[in-house]
Amino acid sequence: MCSTLRGCVPCRTCSVRDFASPLLVGCRRLSTFCNMRIRIPNLWNITGRRPSDVNSTPDVDGTPDVDGTLDVDGTPGVDGTPGVNGTPGVTDGLQAPSEEQPNSVPLTFVENLEKFRVYEASKLLIEREESLFGEMSETETSEDHQEEVANLHADYTKLLERVQYILKGSMSVGLRDVSVENLSSAVKAVCQEEERYQAWKEKNRTPPTWRRRSWKEIHDSLLLDLTTERLVVLPTTPPDMKESLQKEVNHMGKQLKEDLFWVVDVVKLYYPPHMDICNSYARMYHQVLSNKVKGISDIILVDEDVRFLLLWVNDFYPGMLQKPELTAEIDTEALGKLLSQKDLEPLEEQYLSKQQSELMTYISRVLEEEEQRWKDEEEPQKEDGYYVSPVAYDIIQLINGMVTSTETVVGDRHKAQSITCELSSLMERFKVFHSSIIRKNKANSSAYIKANLGCIEQFRDVLENNGHLFTEDERGKCLGIVAEMKQSAHAYLLSPVHDSLKSHYRKLGTKDWLKKSVFEKLLENIETKMQDLQGLTTPCHQELIGQFHREVAVKYLSRLLKGEVKLKNQEQQEEAYTVVKDNAETLHKLFSTMGSREEWLKDVLTKIAEVLKLQDLPAIQIHVATLGSCFPDISVKHVSALLKLKTNVSKADRKTVKETLSDILNEPHTDNAPAFFSQVQVK
């Protein structure tokens, strides 16, 4: 009602037929004399409706009203309520069919909303908002236009609902529920409304109700709800708890993978870069999945479920995120672990304890089976002519398999190594069994010791070359144990051989020794006794023969330095030089043929022989100094005993030579020099 004319003007309360009344015509004629604030052409901008949309009653042509009531022909209203003929509303997800309006006639807010043109609908609401709040004071707006504000608030609610519907439908594969144009329009609307929100924040006045929350926050909250909903598993009735848990986790992982690929392939195309939508979705899915998995981990789980959950968190999930298509768009490193370390610790503790217990049980079982075979006096198996034992192979396979799988499950090598923390105690048990075989010295003891040497060689190899399977402390303990076992095995196998050669050793360094026949008989018996050392794997046989080679050389030099033979002149000393040099060469040839790799032993005996030949004191000093540099374990006693063989060397000269050696031995030396003279005992 116009207060000046006391008559009606076109406003929201008039129906179409009111505009044809004579009074309205009269009002139009007199409008130039009225001081009215609302002009007819601007009516649509204020209300967002056509005059024909204002009336709540059905229109003649059946177009939908704002409140969603039925038109005469039953077409749906905005809220999606069915028409008279049962036609579904627009909220069924399909774009409401309607004829395009002529370009000269802009679509109303309602029409844009029905066509899912939410960006255009948003622009109309912003124009209405600007008209209401732009020029008027805060007091005028609140007092004089309460109805307009309420209507605008209601329309913003409808706009938000439509945007939410579109965003939710955008995660359907193929955009079945909305079109790509709808999604693009919704994203632009969110950005547009966010700009309007930021503009209101800069104003020094109270914002309207719909401007008190960021549309970006609303958008993100909606996506978080959406991701949560998409990871929800429908209730099932599986036959057991294990199937239920694993099915739930696998379902969530599959859904997350499909959705993230959909985001980076399709959804990303309709978002501006500054919204970083790929990382936003990834963070939300990660958060939702993390909460779900944490909830599962908080309940009491059986060992198999714990393993599955740890494997999923530490291997399957990170592996899925490392797909090139995802890493190109998503900062997967920034997502972090699916579970915090605090949440992982109880699961890891339960799993590692189980793994350690199982490993120790399996190793104990292997040792028990070997001990039982020994008690039953079974002969070790032979392969390619040498004795073998399954102990080392079985234990190494167990350790390698379980440590490797544990590292995959817990995602940490150091933690995986911890399951071998009691390995040294089991190796000690193996050592005790090994010593028992030696001590009892049964008919099959030699065969078992040879088989054990093969095991020792395998253990040492894996301990030295596969250190990642063990903690450093445990690795050092086990290496010490296998070294002791090898030493005792060599002593057990070589002691009978040395006992049979004692009579030949006694003739070394005597007058008879200068005759070739003495050393030749020693070599013949050595070659014969070597047949008793067969039945070892090639590496073990080479080590044993090398040890035998060293021990024979040690006994040879020990007998020589006893001083039973006296070399009174140069002729005898040169003869002794020739004998020692020839003995060194023939001994080296024999042992090399049998598999020894201790070539340096020939050099030791040759250098000893050269000292016997030299006559000049300076030459002797230089040569002894060379011996001290090459073999720092040589002592003054060794040199003194050697020089005493040469009776023409005075006591003063011997003292001079010993002082020269002492000076050399006081200098720093490398630790890689082989130990030899320390095993040669002299008085």
What's the gist of this structure?
Helix content is 63%, strand content 1%.
What descriptors fit this protein?
Tetracycline Repressor, domain 2; mainly alpha; SNARE binding; EXOC3/Sec6_C; disordered N terminus; 63% helix; two-stranded antiparallel sheet; single chain; 683 residues; 3 domains
What can you tell me about this protein's structure?
The chain is elongated and about 135 Å long. It contains 28 helices and 2 strands. It has helices at 22-29, 43-47, 51-54, 109-114, 118-133, 138-144, 146-169, 180-201, 215-230, 241-265, 277-297, 303-321, 324-327, 332-335, 341-375, 390-410, 413-417, 423-440, 445-465, 472-500, 502-505, 516-529, 538-560, 570-594, 600-613, 617-630, 636-644, 651-665, and strands at residues 381-383, 386-388. Residues 1-101 and 235-239 have low confidence and may be disordered. Strands 1-2 form a two-stranded antiparallel ribbon. The chain starts with 21 loop residues before the first helix and ends in an 18-residue tail after the last helix. It has 3 domains: 109-326, no CATH class; 341-489, Orthogonal Bundle (Tetracycline Repressor, domain 2); 507-679, Orthogonal Bundle (Tetracycline Repressor, domain 2). The chain is mainly alpha-helical and 683 residues long. It is 63% helix and 1% strand. Helix 5 (118-133) packs antiparallel against helix 7, helix 7 (146-169) packs across helix 8 and helix 9 packs across helix 11 (277-297).
